[in-house]
Amino acid sequence: MAASISVKHGLACGKHALFFPVQRKTSPGSEFRSVRAAASATAPQNEKFCLELVRSRDYEGFVCSLLLPEEARRSALALRAFNVELAQVKDSVSQKTLGLMRMQFWKTAVEDIYRDKPPNQPVSNELWRVVRNHRLTKRWLSRIITERENDLDDRAYRNLQELESYAENTQSSLLYLLLESLGVKDVHADHAASHIGKAHGIVTCLRATPHHSARRRVYLPMDICMLHGASQEDIIRGSREQNVRDVVYDIASQAHVHLQHARSFGPSIPAAATPAFLHTVVLEDYLQRVRKADFDIFHPSLQKRNPLLPIQLYLRSWKKTY
User: Fold this and answer.
1) Are 171 and 200 in contact (CB under 8 A)?
2) For residue 3, what pLDDT is reported?
């Protein structure tokens, strides 16, 4: 960002030839224009960075974004890139302090974005463009950061309600932002987004269990594990016994309930909102596959990507349903 103060060396003042700094007068919008010019100059690189980041770290979100209306794709990719940046902090740092520093960067970045002073970082610049174009609600961005920051404590969820709260504050907040980028402001769409976000968070917790257990981490709700007598050690060693399957069944069932609730709002929400909810296809696909595996979360079939998923997403997009 260009500085608004310059020192003109060699400027004589009267016959004493004194040298002093002179404040350059700028027009009220000059600083904003300089930011916009800088962001515009790197816009293609910023957009490509976000696209590649989402494609490599959130492939399903990437495909869902490509199926959005053309004018909303870039905004969706920027929002998903922001979400990826935050989500990967926990696994990319060795100490909580380092994670907190990264989160503080994003807290400051969001404040600066709303002051039209985004930091010189690709995702921040793209996010600034989305905020400017769609007047996004800052509360949703801040809520995602705060919840991801709290999650750095690296402990299991005490109960299913705690997992749902985490999902509401992260995945649902992201959906609220996607709706705003589509120009949708509707209470029924918000209710549907809340349930879809909770289902998304629950399914993500299940899907990530084999990855986490290999690193001796368990995040499944403790109350459900205790209910079925499944210990953390059972999860860590990849037990496929009935008690672990019962835990998975209970958690997956709650995700299914949220999807049903979300679909109950279908007739009431505007058509423009349905593209934001394409991820229900991904969630539905996983829940069907885990049921076919008899709720064995460690079954090899669940570790493979469904090659037909892009086609299923396209068909659902074409039908304009979720």
Assistant:
1) yes
2) 39
User: Reduced to 3 states, what is the DSSP secondary structure of residue 89?
Assistant: helix
User: Per the structure block, which two tokens stand in for 80?
Assistant: 């998903």
Four-residue CA torsion sign, 194, 200, 206, 208: negative
Using 70 as the pLDDT threshold, list the residues of the chain that sit under it: 1-41
Instruction: Please report the sign of the dihedral spanned by the C-alpha atoms of residue 137, residue 69, residue 124, residue 147.
Output: positive
Cβ of 47: how many Cβ atoms within 10 Å?
A: 19
Residues 6+ positions from 91 with CB-CB distance below 8 Å: none
C-alpha span between 127 and 143 (Å, rounded): 15
The percent of the chain in helix, strand and coil, each rounded to the nearest 5, is 70, 0, 30
Q: Give the global pTM.
A: 0.86
**Phi, psi dihedral angles at 298 (to 5 degrees):** -100, 10
Look at the block and give the residue holding tokens 């986490």.
Answer: 212
Please report the pLDDT score of residue 43 as a whole number.
79
Specify the pLDDT at position 322.
Answer: 87
309 within 8 A of 253, measured Cβ to Cβ: no
- Give residue for tokens 């991801």: 148
Q: Measured between alpha carbons, how far is residue 90 from residues 85, 94, 126, 136, 153 in Å?
A: 10, 8, 23, 26, 9
| pLDDT tens-digit series, residues 175-206 | 999 999 999 999 999 999 999 999 999 999 99
Amino acid 204 reads T
Query: According to the 3-state scheme, what is the secondary structure of 61-73?
Result: HHHHHHCCCHHHH
- DSSP lists the bridge partners of residue 6 as 22
Q: How many helices (H) and strands (E) does the chain have?
A: 17, 0
